[in-house]
Amino acid sequence: MTGTDAAGARPPVLELQSVHKRFGEQAVLRGIDLVVAPHEVVVLIGASGSGKSTLLKTVNLLEQVDDGRILLSGEDITDPRTNADAVRARIGVVFQHYNLFPHMSVLDNVTLAARQVARTPRAEAEATGLALLTRIGLAEKAGEYPDRLSGGQQQRVAIARAIATDPELLLLDEITSALDPQLVGEVLDLVRELKAAGSTIVMATHEMSFARRVADRVVYMKDGVVVEAGAPEQIFGDPQRAETREFLSRLQDPFA
């Protein structure tokens, strides 16, 4: 489905159709098909090098696909005529490293895209930004610089920045991997709140317990292909593919 159907249903927020990506001789994505419905949380799991991060980068047009198509709300964003900046303005992205601007205050970091890309007046953008910082419990840090915040606080600010323009799609790439274990929970709590608020999210993570609790659908990737996809209770409780069972068993016993 690439548009609104006869019954008026919304198209998928994201659709990947046989997406391929190579780096030199290495095939990193090998025919990925994926459909993400409005308000759905899809969690990508798999070992490092399985293609999860590259998949997210192709969706945000940070990497060009070699073959296949990517549709955002029914629009082919892999068309060469696509305005990449306009597409990125519709997508919120958070990477494992916070990527906050160190010379800007927390509030300026959160409001930058709204002011510079969406051309929202500063007063309006700052009101929205303060509301977001209040929501994540960091309103008192609005005037601070990022180096005065803990890693968990910085990542929560990065998420607030990503959602400040009310994006159609939120991409989260291993957002807890650079955090100390005691800080992981506060970031994942915020993702749970975003799910409850109806955000559409595609998230790559190594946090299996979180994937089990929050995902609507879990996608296991290996060597650039989707090996198995399904509801969390099916993937974690009754995986159908031997590769999935082996991956999950190694997580439980990393020396197996």
TrEMBL record:
<feature type="domain" description="ABC transporter">
    <location>
        <begin position="14"/>
        <end position="248"/>
    </location>
</feature>
<keyword id="KW-0029">Amino-acid transport</keyword>
<keyword id="KW-0472">Membrane</keyword>
<keyword id="KW-0547">Nucleotide-binding</keyword>
<dbReference type="GO" id="GO:0015424">
    <property type="term" value="F:ABC-type amino acid transporter activity"/>
</dbReference>
<dbReference type="InterPro" id="IPR050086">
    <property type="entry name" value="MetN_ABC_transporter-like"/>
</dbReference>
<protein>
    <submittedName>
        <fullName>Amino acid ABC transporter ATP-binding protein (PAAT family)</fullName>
    </submittedName>
</protein>
<keyword id="KW-0067">ATP-binding</keyword>
<dbReference type="InterPro" id="IPR003593">
    <property type="entry name" value="AAA+_ATPase"/>
</dbReference>
<comment type="similarity">
    <text>Belongs to the ABC transporter superfamily.</text>
</comment>
<dbReference type="InterPro" id="IPR017871">
    <property type="entry name" value="ABC_transporter-like_CS"/>
</dbReference>
<keyword id="KW-1003">Cell membrane</keyword>
<dbReference type="GO" id="GO:0016887">
    <property type="term" value="F:ATP hydrolysis activity"/>
</dbReference>
<dbReference type="InterPro" id="IPR027417">
    <property type="entry name" value="P-loop_NTPase"/>
</dbReference>
<dbReference type="GO" id="GO:0005524">
    <property type="term" value="F:ATP binding"/>
</dbReference>
<dbReference type="InterPro" id="IPR003439">
    <property type="entry name" value="ABC_transporter-like_ATP-bd"/>
</dbReference>
<dbReference type="Pfam" id="PF00005">
    <property type="entry name" value="ABC_tran"/>
</dbReference>
<dbReference type="InterPro" id="IPR030679">
    <property type="entry name" value="ABC_ATPase_HisP-typ"/>
</dbReference>
<dbReference type="GO" id="GO:0005886">
    <property type="term" value="C:plasma membrane"/>
</dbReference>
<keyword id="KW-0813">Transport</keyword>
